[in-house]
Every structure is written in structure tokens, then in C-alpha cells.
Design a protein that fits this description.
Helices cover 38% and strands 16% of the residues. The protein is of the alpha/beta class and 885 residues long. It is rod-shaped and about 155 Å long. It has 4 domains: 187 residues, Response regulator (Rossmann fold), CATH 3.40.50; 182 residues, Response regulator (Rossmann fold, 3-Layer(aba) Sandwich); 51 residues, no CATH class; 269 residues, Up-down Bundle (Rhopdopsin 7-helix transmembrane proteins). The strands form 11 sheets. The protein has an 8-stranded mixed sheet, with helices on both faces. A 5-stranded parallel sheet has the order 6-3-7-8-9, sandwiched between helices. It has 21 helices and 32 strands.
């Protein structure tokens, strides 16, 4: 034995080697390990100048299950149990190599060979298989290369990320390119550790985005999560749970699927955890999102088998959503177990096509290949439940005829169409072949020589393929473009497939959508809903998977205390806010010029509102104002016509005319409050109202004081005689309104009234109204009017018992009582109304108070003037006055 250094780029590794000549006659080279009872089978060993190494997961072994579990597997204690569907991966590799060797356009005159070994889903067997590839054909001599003529250029494998990692730890030492065709392990993203690794599947993260888009598309917001109980499952949960929450999706429960183990360990583990699997029956959760590599599916099937057949759980009908790792494959012992539970499942599969001639190729396989194929015997016996003559023990199985048809095998055991994982193997072979072809064409240093009609290639090292693999770009025979991204992952999309499981064990996968990672954000997923078939439990109706009923437009979600955010109550939107979609987190506020409709699901424009002449209320108030004004004018006309009569002359005739004129204008000023407010009407309405009413109250005050002074001067010694006369009365009537004019002038010069839009006071209306400008000045104007009315009422009340023939004090008292009552009621009524009804309240108060003054003061006099003219003379009035005294 000699020691020899093998130099690799970037590092030097000391490996113990022996020359091939020293080992070629050794009788022990065909053994796997010295005491290992399970040799590594070779499938389709194919010699060639360049060798592809492939490691697949085809078989694992069952240990004794617990004695109290009565299962079909009890009869298979010592029998290897295979995953027949994985055999297609072997056929895909052999088919690809066959096509390449027959194609003169690729590796012309160069024969591509391959070795295929089994990993058994275990780390020890994976390492053994990898070292065996490095040793050479049918030899396992760790650290020694026993076949110098077969140059190993690349390794293809594996289906499971953990197996791929185990392979990479060895192949990376030699910088041998490794192309995985299964899952994308998060650990493999570290290119410093796995710089020689290439993924024949796109990044897993794209699938998670696709699942989120799928859940959003069907409004499935309450789901169950299943993840394999290992580091990859934990990484999956750490990535997806925040992503789901970010998009408004919650998980009701989280179940860890036990990772693949020996059967007795697995069953004991499942029995110990049976109680937690009762959550599968949760009625509100109709969608399960499952993550796990191929062995996990077989474990899940075992779990469901035990649940239904041993623990008595009823069958469940749910929507299973799985990533591309799952292919719904079964162990050979599971082929009699029904698959109807997974009917209607949705799987994101790596995009695949059907290479021309593949089906014809696999139809030619036969048990007679056993000399070259170390897997076909186990596959044939397990798939067809028969025994070949070359088997050591036939047992109770029927003999195999060798004429069995692959088309009769259930779809969970074998498919005639190339599956996604097999398509990845097919593309991996072509990627290596194109890289080799580019390598030879790019340089002349690889000289070729002829030996026995075959081309011998010299000085070809596997690590020299890396620059060509990283930049590989070609179209395969199925028309798909193959190239890698900067992380060494395949740039491709996914097919969204609907799996249909029938009672006759046939399986049909229907592609109803695509997932394109390169599409614009939000447009990655494209679906054809009409092509989907749901589980029979849903009666052909779209499944619902929500914590509670949807909140329909007009309602928003209200969080339930102690519950996840997907569980909520529905609260109606308040006035002015709407929700126009289902399950909105909050109601949206309408703009200022809009309001919500009755259903609270749409904003509609507000109407412009003001007290117009055209509406019934405006017409009524306008007619009332004009009617009262005409009555006042009529009374004024009567008084003017009868100006010489004693009853008109009494109590200062001028003040009477001033009062009637003021009352006439008071009725008409109410019309300023009607119609569309403008800058002019807003300036005039309150100012005019305040000044005219002050003039009317001042005239009343002057009349009352005149009455009091007239009776006080009847005493001979009274000093009040000098105040008697029209000067005092006229002075009061003119001076008091002047104070109001001063207040109004200050108001107009500081904060004058102006028109504005009130968008908030009334539902569905924008009120066009006058803003008073200064509330303080408006209050001062009203307060001054209140002061005049209070003084007039007080003086009139004190003079009410004087002889009434010449005394108006009693009538003024009643009129001021009505006036004060109306305006005291006006204040709360005005403050409690909104919009145009504020103007209506003020008009009503003006009309009622003015009509009260007119009626209480002038109706008795008009009665005498018009109906009792015989009483309208000085003698009659004097006698009546004497009798009352």
C-alpha cells in the first residue's frame, strides 16, 4: 500500500490509496463492509469513459413491531420493504444516459457510464454508497480508487435533503459536482460548505409563497400545519408561520410528524402520541398544509392507518396541501391501504414534461435485467406481490411470470408518466452531459486517443465542470429550458396539481394551475378553479376553512380576547364608515362630502341642504311671514285711518306707528333666513333681526314709561310733569336701538357672519348655512334684546293695575310674557337642532314672538275701532275709567 496526495482546488487532502493493479484480483473487493449483511446493490451498472454516480433511496428495513399490534407488516419482519415508485428515478437516469450515448450532438464518440447505489434512507449506508462510488466498480475500499479507467465526474442524489447532505460531506472533499433531485434543504444554502452542490429543484421559499397565494385565493384562513419532526421541519415552521400571519392566515394546531425510523420504534412513538392526533377531527379546519420529505408521507399513512383501523377514529375528508417533496408514494406493504383520505389533495410539483420515448423504454423492463440491475427483483416482487424463481424463499406468494404489466400497478406504487422527481433526474443527467460537452469543446488540452475503437479522455477532473454547470443553459428534449440561479438552484416554476384517488387504486393527477416565481408580485399563482375536484365529503362545493363565519361588507372584524386574530366577532361599521370587502380589519371612513349607505358597504355623495323656498317647511314659513306682515300693515292702515280717534291718540301716536312699522319689518326680516345662504344674506339676517327687534322693544319700553309717567303727573305736587311730552318717549325709542346698532357694527368689523358648509352635523347631508362668525357678539346682540324685553316686562308689570282705558301696560305685560317665553324656549331649541332646522327654529321664534306682540297689544284696540266704534270717544273712555276707579 502506498500513500499519495490528491490535490483539489483550494485544499489538499491526504488520502490512502492503492494502485488498481494491487486490487484487481482481490476476492474481497465486491464486499461492502467486512461484516455488513446488506451489500449495496448496483442498478444498471453501465461502463463508460466518464461515470455518473447516482445514489437513490429505494429500500429500508423493518424491525419487529410490538407483538400486540396486529398489522400486515407482521408477516414482513425480515423482508426488505421497498418504495416501488422510486424505481422510476433509476429508469429516468438510465433512459437519459441511453439518449445521450445515442445522440451524436452531445459527447460525440464518448460513452457515458453510470453507477447507481442505494442509501437506505440512513446516514451510514449513504456514506458507504458514496465511498463505494469513489472506489470504483463493484468495490468498496474507503480512501482508495480501484478503477482508474472509469472517471467519476458527478454524483446525482438524493431525494432526501439529509441524504444529500451526507453525500456532500464526502463528495465536496474532491470538489465533485453533486446534483440533488429532491428537496431543497435550508442547510444547503450555505455555499461555503456546499460549494459543489446544485439543486434540480427551485428554492423552497417559492413554494411557500405559492401556498400562501392559494390559501388567499380560496379564503382559507384557519388551517392545520403538519411538519416532520426534525431540523428541516423546524426551519419550515420558522419560515411559514410568520409568513402566514403576515397574510392574515392562522394555524389552529401544529402536528409534528415522526421522522422515518424502524417500524417498531415508529409504532411505539405513534401509540404514545395518539391523543394529540384527535385535533385532525376539528370541524372548522378543513385544510392541512403538510411539509415533509418522502418518508414522512409513509409515516403519515401509517398514522392514519392506525387511527382508523386500531383506535377507531372516523375517516376524515380534508384538503391536503403539500409541497413538491411529496409524490404520494407508498411502501410496498401499504399498497392495500386506501388512499381516499387524500382524494382531492393539492400538491405543488416541480414542473415536468414527458420526454419522447420514455414510456416505451419502461415497458421493456423485465426481471431478466437482474444481472445488471440490483433493484429490479425487489421492485418486481413488491409491486406485483409475487415471487421470482431466483428468490431464496418464495413463501406464500404466487410465482411471478415475468409478463406482468406495469400499467396494472396502482399509481401510488408506480406511474407510467415521468414524475417530477424523475424529471429532475433526467435533467440532471443532461446538465452534466452538456457541461462535459462544453468543457471538451472549450479547450484542446484534453487530448483524445483511440483504444479498441473507444475514445480515451485524459486529464479530465470533475471540479473543472463547475464553471460550466454554473452557467449551463440548454433546452432539453421535452422543450424546457434548464439553468441555475446564483445559488445553484434550478430556475423553474411549479405545476399545481390536483390528485384524484379512486377506489380501484388508480391515481390521476390533474394540473390546474402554475406557480411562476419570476412573475410580478401577487401574480405568481395562476389557477383554473373549474378543473379542481374536491374530496367527496364537500359535496362538490368549495371547502370552507375559517375559524368563524366571514364578516360581510358593512361589518369589520373585532378581536376575541384570548383567541388568535383569525377568530373574531363581526361589528357593524359606525355611521360615516364602510367596509366593502369580506373580513376587513377596520371600517374605512368616507370622505367629507360622502356618507355611508344603510348597509354600510358604500359611500354615497351627501346632498346639499338648506332651508329653501321650494320645500314644504320653507313655503309654510314664508307664507306665514308674509301673512303676518300683511296683517300688521292692515293694522297700521286702520290706525292711520283712525288717527284722530281717542284710542289711537292715547299713549303717543308716534310710538304706535313706530311699533307697528317695526313689527312689520320683523315679519319680513324672517325671509332673510330662507333660501340659499350667500355672503350678503349672512351679513344681513342677524344684524337686521337684532336692530329691528331692538327698535320694537324700545318702542314698547317708551310706551310703558309714558303710561307710568302720565299717571304719576296726575298729582298736583308731582315733579314728573317736566318729563311729560313726546321728547322723552321719542328719545327712548331712538336711543335704545342705537346701542344695538353699535354692537352690530363692532360685530361686522371684527368677526362678521359668513356662509359655510357643515359636513358633519346631519347624516347624509351637507348643510349650507351661515356661520355667525363670533358667538360672543351674537350672544351680546341676543342679550341686549333680552335686557330690553326684561325691562319692558318689569315696568309693564308694575303699571298693570292703572286704569286700563288709557293704560296699555296690561297688554304690554301679556305681550312681553309671550315674547320672553318664546325666546327663552328658543335658546335650548336652537342649540339642540342641526342644519337647516336651526334657521327654521329662529324664523318660528321671530314669527311667534312678533305675532304675540301684535296680538296682545293691538287686537283689543282694533276690536274697539272696527267692531265697537261707539266706544271710541273720550266720554265713553272717561266714564269707563271712572267706573273702574
Amino acid at each position: 500500500m502506498t500513500q499519495k496526495k490528491i490535490n483539489t482546488p483550494g485544499e489538499e487532502v491526504l488520502i490512502s490509496i492503492r494502485e488498481f493493479s494491487e486490487l484487481k484480483d482481490s476476492p474481497e473487493v465486491d464486499r461492502v463492509l467486512m461484516d455488513d449483511p446488506h451489500p449495496i446493490p448496483y442498478a444498471f451498472y453501465h461502463p463508460g469513459n466518464l461515470i455518473l454516480g447516482a445514489i437513490v433511496s429505494q429500500v429500508f428495513f423493518l424491525h419487529n413491531p410490538p407483538s400486540f399490534i396486529e398489522l400486515p407488516v407482521q408477516m414482513l419482519i425480515d423482508e426488505p420493504v421497498s418504495v416501488p415508485k422510486n424505481y422510476q428515478h433509476i429508469l429516468a437516469l438510465a433512459f437519459a444516459v441511453k439518449e445521450i450515448n445515442e445522440n451524436p450532438q452531445i459527447l460525440s464518440n464518448i460513452t457515458l457510464g453510470f453507477h447507481i447505489l442505494n442509501s437506505y434512507y440512513t446516514a451510514s449506508m449513504t456514506c458507504k454508497a458514496t465511498l463505494s462510488l469513489l472506489s470504483g466498480q463493484h468495490r468498496f475500499v474507503p480512501n482508495f480508487k480501484c478503477n482508474l479507467q472509469s472517471n467519476l465526474m458527478a454524483v446525482i442524489g438524493s431525494l432526501v435533503s439529509k441524504t444529500s447532505t451526507n453525500i456532500a460531506t464526502i463528495s465536496a472533499i474532491y470538489k465533485i459536482p453533486q446534483l440533488t433531485f429532491g428537496s431543497f434543504s435550508p442547510l444547503q444554502e450555505d455555499k461555503t460548505l456546499f460549494s459543489s452542490l446544485y439543486q434540480m429543484v427551485p428554492n423552497e421559499y417559492h413554494q411557500y409563497i405559492g401556498v400562501v397565494r392559494l390559501l388567499q385565493h380560496f379564503t382559507w384562513m384557519w388551517i392545520g400545519l403538519f411538519a416532520v419532526d426534525d431540523d428541516n421541519g423546524d426551519k419550515f415552521l420558522q419560515t411559514t408561520v410568520p409568513m402566514l400571519s403576515l397574510h392574515g392566515i392562522c394555524y389552529a394546531f401544529m402536528v409534528k410528524i415522526p421522522k422515518q425510523a424502524y417500524m417498531n420504534e415508529l409504532i411505539n412513538l405513534l401509540i404514545g402520541q395518539v391523543e394529540k392526533y384527535s385535533v385532525l377531527m376539528e370541524r372548522k379546519v378543513n385544510v392541512f398544509f403538510v411539509y415533509g420529505e418522502p418518508p414522512s408521507f409513509q409515516v403519515l399513512r401509517l398514522l392514519l392507518f392506525l387511527a382508523y383501523n386500531w383506535w377507531g377514529f372516523p375517516a376524515i375528508g380534508k384538503v391536503w396541501i403539500a409541497t413538491s417533496h411529496w409524490d404520494f408514494d407508498s411502501l410496498s406493504i401499504q399498497k392495500t391501504w386506501g388512499m381516499q383520505t387524500f382524494h382531492g389533495s393539492i400538491v405543488f410539483s416541480v414542473h415536468s414534461n414527458q420526454p419522447f420515448g420514455f414510456q416505451k423504454f419502461i415497458q421493456k423492463i423485465s426481471p431478466s435485467w437482474a444481472k445488471q440491475d440490483g433493484f429490479i427483483q425487489a421492485f418486481w416482487e413488491q409491486a406485483f406481490s409475487c415471487s421470482l424463481k431466483i428468490s431464496k424463499e418464495q413463501g406464500e406468494k404466487k410465482p411471478c411470470t415475468g409478463e406482468e404489466k406495469l400499467e396494472t400497478i396502482p399509481g401510488t406504487l408506480f406511474e407510467m408518466n415521468m414524475t417530477g422527481h424523475s424529471y429532475n433526474v433526467y435533467n440532471a443527467v443532461y446538465a452534466v452531459a452538456h457541461a462535459l460537452d462544453a468543457l471538451y469543446k472549450s479547450s484542446s488540452k484534453y487530448k483524445r486517443s483511440t483504444k479498441g475503437g473507444r475514445m480515451i479522455l485524459q486529464n479530465v477532473q470533475p471540479w473543472e465542470l463547475h464553471p460550466f454547470l454554473k452557467n449551463i443553459l440548454f433546452n432539453n428534449s421535452a422543450g424546457d429550458t434548464i439553468h441555475f440561479d446564483e445559488n445553484g438552484a434550478l430556475v423553474a416554476g411549479f405545476d399545481v396539481t390536483n390528485w384524484l384517488m379512486f377506489n380501484n387504486e388508480s391515481v390521476v393527477r390533474v394540473i390546474f394551475g402554475t406557480m411562476d416565481p419570476q412573475a410580478p408580485l401577487g401574480k405568481e399563482l395562476s389557477l383554473n378553479d373549474d378543473a379542481i375536484v374536491w374530496h367527496t365529503s364537500f359535496n362538490k362545493v368549495l371547502p370552507l376553512s375559517v375559524c368563524n363565519e366571514n364578516c360581510y361588507p358593512g361589518y369589520s372584524r373585532k378581536k376575541k380576547e384570548g383567541e388568535k386574530f383569525c377568530c373574531y366577532d363581526c361589528a357593524p361599521c359606525p355611521e360615516g364608515m364602510i367596509s366593502y370587502q369580506k373580513d376587513m380589519d377596520a371600517c374605512a371612513k368616507c370622505s367629507e362630502d360622502q356618507h355611508s349607505n344603510l348597509e354600510r358597504n358604500q359611500c354615497i355623495p351627501k346632498i346639499i341642504s338648506y332651508l329653501s323656498y321650494g320645500e314644504p317647511l320653507g313655503i309654510t314659513l314664508a307664507l306665514s311671514a308674509v301673512g303676518f306682515a300683511m296683517i300688521t300693515a292692515l293694522v297700521l292702515g286702520i290706525f292711520v285711518k283712525n288717527h284722530g280717534t281717542p284710542i289711537v291718540k292715547a299713549n303717543n301716536q308716534t310710538l304706535t306707528y313706530i311699533l307697528l312699522s317695526s313689527l312689520f319689518l320683523c315679519f319680513l326680516c324672517s325671509l332673510l333666513f330662507l333660501g340659499k345662504p350667500t355672503q350678503m344674506t349672512c351679513l344681513l339676517r342677524q344684524i337686521t333681526f337684532g336692530i329691528i327687534f331692538s327698535a320694537a322693544l324700545s318702542a314698547l319700553l317708551a310706551k310703558t314709561i309714558t303710561v307710568v309717567l302720565a299717571f304719576m303727573t296726575t298729582k298736583p305736587s308731582s315733579r314728573m310733569r317736566k318729563w311729560i311730552g313726546k321728547g322723552l318717549a321719542n328719545g327712548i325709542a331712538l336711543s335704545c336701538p342705537c346701542i344695538q346698532v353699535g354692537l352690530c357694527t363692532i360685530w361686522l368689523s371684527t368677526f362678521p357672519p359668513f356662509p359655510e358648509l357643515d359636513k358633519y352635523s346631519l347624516k347624509g347631508e351637507i348643510t349650507l348655512e351661515c356661520n355667525e362668525g363670533s358667538v360672543v357678539m351674537f350672544s351680546c346682540v341676543l342679550s341686549y334684546m333680552g335686557f330690553l324685553s326684561l325691562v319692558s316686562f318689569t315696568v309693564a308689570f308694575l303699571a298693570r293695575k292703572l286704569p286700563d282705558s288709557f293704560n296699555e301696560a296690561k297688554f304690554i305685560t301679556f305681550s312681553m310674557l309671550v315674547f320672553c317665553s318664546v325666546w327663552l324656549s328658543f335658546i335650548p331649541a336652537y342649540l339642540s337642532t342641526k342644519g337647516k332646522y336651526m334657521a327654521a327654529v329662529e324664523i318660528f321664534s321671530i314669527l311667534i314672538s312678533t305675532a304675540g306682540l301684535l296680538a296682545c297689544i293691538f287686537s283689543p284696540k282694533c276690536y274697539i275701532i272696527v267692531l265697537k266704534p261707539e266706544l271710541n270717544n273720550r266720554g265713553q273712555l272717561t266714564r269707563r275709567s271712572s267706573r273702574r276707579i
